[in-house]
Design a protein that fits this description.
The protein has 314 residues and is α/β, with parallel strands linked by helices. The protein contains twelve helices and eleven strands. α3 crosses α12 and α5 packs across α9 (211-219).
């Protein structure tokens, strides 16, 4: 059980960003962040994640009690693709810092944080989109999250991509949209959009950055943009239904950058309510979930948490 005086290191090592926090109970002692990495499942992935975390820890403000750590919890991209490499990373972290280490996927961490270890469903809508549910037996039920080629429907990338497609359609003589003016900040002419996108280091993230402009246009009354947002909500509602399975009283917590838009979140809540799904306020985020994994064992999600394997005393 967590002591309010225990100092723990929590990390979110994603594809776009690595963030670390040093915490004492509910108190944030310090934080640092920098670039992300491809995922722990790739060649040399555990070493890449380990070196990135250690480097980011070195960016923490000086004078923090890093030497008094009692545990590490790391939410890491690519965990679901390789349990072996995830355990390898946990062992590396444990040896480096001399404390128990827990490694889990970013989606599992988000569900843990949102519901504080309880069973239930979490919908994460960021650049990608995935619904995670852990049932009473701790079994994972997942819908979507299959990446930009085969899934992530209704995500920030999806919304931004549909918005850019609408600009090109308007250029071809289709329905006019204020998104054409928004795209003017990116390129001189819509016909240059394919080339602009091809030049981006991360095309999916670039498309996701257009999503807030689609949301703004929809809120301002643009019919094309509103149609895109409405379709995204319908798709995401279906994703939650698939993850909820036979749950007779489905409830879902919403997380991710896209749902930070109150306009979008309200439309999504209405869509979910029409399907009989109750939205509950998340109790925390992925970093809170990583902290829970670091300080508590025997969670219902335990089979999806990769620990260092050392028989540390409770």
């Amino acid at each position: 059980m967590e002591s309010p005086n225990e100092v723990i290191l929590v990390a979110d090592i994603g594809k776009s960003c690595c963030r670390v926090e040093l915490r004492r109970g509910d108190e944030l002692l310090g934080a640092a962040d920098q670039h992300g990495f491809p995922g722990v499942h790739v060649d040399n992935g555990p070493t890449q994640a380990f070196e990135l975390l250690v480097e980011t820890v070195s960016l923490l403000p000086p004078g923090l009690p890093v030497s008094t750590l009692t545990g590490i919890g790391a939410a890491v991209a690519g965990v679901e693709a390789s349990a072996e490499k995830s355990r390898e990373l946990a062992t590396m972290l444990s040896k480096r810092f001399g404390v128990p280490a827990a490694v889990l996927s970013d989606a599992t961490a988000a569900q843990l944080g949102a519901l504080q270890g309880a069973p239930g469903t979490t919908l994460i809508v960021g650049t990608g989109a995935v619904a995670f549910r852990f049932d009473q037996a701790g079994v994972l039920h997942r819908a979507d999250g299959w990446g930009p080629y085969l899934g992530d429907q209704g995500s920030g990338r999806w919304i931004g991509q549909r918005g850019l497609q609408a600009v090109l359609e308007a250029h071809d003589g289709g329905p006019s949209t204020s998104l054409s003016a928004s795209a003017g900040a990116l390129v001189e002419s819509p016909e240059h959009l394919p080339g602009w996108l091809a030049e981006q280091e991360n095309p999916y993230r670039a498309m996701a950055r257009f999503a807030p402009l689609v949301l703004q246009a929809a809120e301002a009354g643009d019919a094309v943009a509103h149609g895109i947002i409405g379709e995204a909500c319908r798709i995401l509602t279906r994703t939650v239904q698939l993850a909820s399975g036979g749950d007779v009283s489905p409830r879902v917590a919403l997380l991710g950058g896209v749902v930070s838009s109150e306009f979008f979140a309200e439309l999504l809540r209405k869509s979910l309510a029409s399907a009989g799904i109750e939205v509950v306020a998340p109790l925390g985020d992925g970093l809170d979930g990583a902290a829970l994994a670091a300080t508590r064992r025997g969670l219902i999600q335990e089979r999806y948490i990769h620990r260092d394997g050392t028989n540390w005393p409770d």
